[in-house]
Design brief:
This protein is mainly beta. The protein contains 3 helices and 18 strands. Strands 9, 10, 11, 12, 13, 14, 15, 16, 17 and 18 form a 10-stranded mixed sheet that branches. Strands 2-8-7-4-5 form a 5-stranded mixed sheet. A 3-stranded antiparallel sheet has the order 1-3-6.
Length: 301
Amino acid sequence: MKFPKLYSVVACAVAVCGFASCSDVTEPVYTKPDASTFKINTPPLQNQYYGLDENGQFEIALNGQPSYGFSAITQYRAEVSLTEDFASYETLTPVGTGTLSRMTFKDSDLATAICVLHGYKTKEDYKDNGEEKVYFRGVAFIEGIEDSYVKTSNVVSLNRVQGYFAIPVPGYIYVIGNYVGDWIGPDLENEQALKPYTLSEKDDAIGSRVYYGTIDFGENAPLFRFYTALGSWDDNTYGPTSGNNDDNPVVFEDFKAGSSQLYPLMATKDSFSYPNYKGTLSFVADFSDAKSPKVTITAVK
């Protein structure tokens, strides 16, 4: 009959020991990182020709992580420079979570960084420099901890990188019409002549597919339609939805100075015609929804 009592005493002793051991557990303590432990591997393709591709990717792998005193979820980035001293550099963010020791980067991001480091802003600025040596160093940090940043890994390089122009620039569409009397055709050879008659995305809304601009039709009663690309009269052309796609004008007789109207657009060769207005038109052409593009046209007083 005494065995249950003895069992109870032992069980209580074990429980007490258990509580004591829990109270002795040391919480992880953050320490400022030891930068000497942060290393990246030399890329296997270091001395091979590497032509950047818009859809391509490349990797940089860690050889040692910074020590923060405990096992931390660490974010990784790479800085890229055209000089070994990193006097000027751009930061690349890996694909995915950014926490993997094998970092995967987009070729397009590297191409953009190279263009920025060269100071290229437009296609006209761009110069093909052929194969270039590009330097990398790692960046590590714990999100939300300011002094966790480590930017002193070793420096590695890709020695034969071929870039391309990758600076995002505003998209644009063409207004083809009678602003100079006779129409300038939507042919590739007329690209320069048609530049003054384009609508463009805003600099802070690249990729929005919303285009803005004004065009002066002078003493001509405006007659026009829109082209999203050059090539031929029959392709990439948009006009008023009330048209029959038989290359005829759709007349809006009530449109005059001060008028502003929103029109749906359709793929058609029919054109907008304003016989009772002369002067400048302001446009906001919204192609953000490919299935239902539209345009706001305003008669500028």
